[in-house]
What we know:
Layout: E1 8-9, E2 17-20, E3 29-32, E4 35-38, E5 48-50, E6 59-62, E7 65-70, E8 79-80, E9 85-87
Amino acid sequence: MTETDPRLIRLAEHDNVLMLTTTLQAGEVISVAGIACEMPIALSLGHKIAAQQIRTGEIVQKYNFPIGVATEDIPLGAHVHVHNVRSDYTPSYVIPEAVK
């Protein structure tokens, strides 16, 4: 494996994540930048994989847009999701007590 698996796509030039174009099964091996990475869990279409190592506190970028900040070190080829990224894309709102 010398390149990135064709089932992964980089949506924009400066993105540090790759998007899945299909489902990957647990135990399946993919290549990211020529490095073999085994999937620990099944992931479906649209999930993100780290295109490079992303360190704690670094911005996660998709479509050349910051979508969050890494809450832990994310190794190359690892799943990038809510378990290791704090979203900066979707604002959170406080619902007033009277509306609850």
